[in-house]
Write a structure and sequence with these properties.
This protein is an all-alpha fold and about 210 residues long. The chain has a single domain, classed as de novo design (two linked rop proteins). The N and C termini lie far apart (about 130 Å).
C-alpha cells in the first residue's frame, strides 16, 4: 500500500510538472518579487519628495504652481493602497500606474525648473537630495523593466497549451502590464526655455524738417 501511495505521488508530481504547474508557480513568485521591488522604489521616491519640496520651496517661490502639482500628485498616489494584490486587479493597477505617471511627470518638471536657481547648490543637502531623486528614478526604470519581463514570461505560460489548462484549474490568470499611454513621453522631462524678453521696438524717427 505504501509503495502504491509513493507511486501515485510521484506520478502526480510528474503530471503537474509536465502540464506546467511548477513553471506557473515559479513565474508567479517571480512576478510577485519584481512587483514588490517596483513598489519599494516608488515608495522611496514618495518618501524623498517632502524633503525636496521643503528644501527648494523658499528658493523657488515663484514656481508655486509646479510645487503644488508635485505635492498634489504625491497625495493622489497615497490614496491608492499599494499592495501585492494590485497586480491581480487590472483596473486598480491601471489607476495606480496613472497616478505614478502623473507624479513622475510633475517631479520631472520641478527638477528641470530648479536648474534656473543656481543658489540652490549652496543649500546644505540639496545636491545629495537631487542625486537621490535621480538615482531613484533610475532604479524605478530598472524595477519596472524587470516586472515587465517577468509578466511577459508568466502570461505566455498562462496562455500557452497545455499549461493554459493547468492555469484555469489552479486559478492562474494573466497579470496586467503597464498601460499608461505614451510612457516614454511621460518619463521625459519637458523642455523649459527661458527666453530673454523681446527688445522694445525702436522709436519712430520724426520726419526731417526744412
Amino acid at each position: 500500500m505504501r509503495s502504491l501511495k509513493l507511486g501515485f505521488v510521484a506520478f502526480a508530481a510528474l503530471l503537474l510538472s509536465g502540464c506546467g504547474y511548477n513553471t506557473l508557480q515559479s513565474q508567479d513568485e517571480q512576478v510577485k518579487a519584481s512587483w514588490a521591488e517596483v513598489l519599494n522604489q516608488y515608495q522611496r521616491r514618495a518618501d524623498l519628495i517632502p524633503n525636496l519640496v521643503n528644501t527648494v520651496k523658499g528658493a523657488v517661490a515663484a514656481e508655486q504652481g509646479i510645487l503644488e502639482a508635485v505635492v498634489n500628485a504625491r497625495a493622489k498616489v497615497g490614496t491608492i493602497q499599494a499592495t501585492p494584490e494590485l497586480i491581480n486587479d487590472p483596473q486598480a493597477f491601471q489607476a495606480f500606474q496613472a497616478a505614478q505617471g502623473e507624479l513622475g511627470s510633475a517631479l520631472s518638471r520641478l527638477m528641470v525648473v530648479v536648474e534656473k536657481y543656481p543658489e540652490l547648490k549652496s543649500i546644505q543637502g540639496f545636491s545629495d537630495l537631487q542625486a537621490q531623486i535621480e538615482g531613484t528614478e533610475n532604479r524605478i526604470t530598472v524595477a519596472r523593466n524587470r516586472y515587465i519581463e517577468s509578466v511577459q514570461g508568466f502570461n505566455v505560460t498562462v496562455r500557452s497549451f497545455p499549461s493554459n489548462l493547468t492555469a484555469k484549474v489552479f486559478g492562474f490568470s494573466p497579470k496586467p502590464g503597464f498601460t499608461v499611454q505614451n510612457e516614454a513621453a511621460i518619463a521625459t522631462p519637458p523642455t523649459v526655455s527661458f527666453a530673454p524678453p523681446a527688445a522694445a521696438p525702436a522709436p519712430a524717427t520724426p520726419p526731417a524738417t526744412n
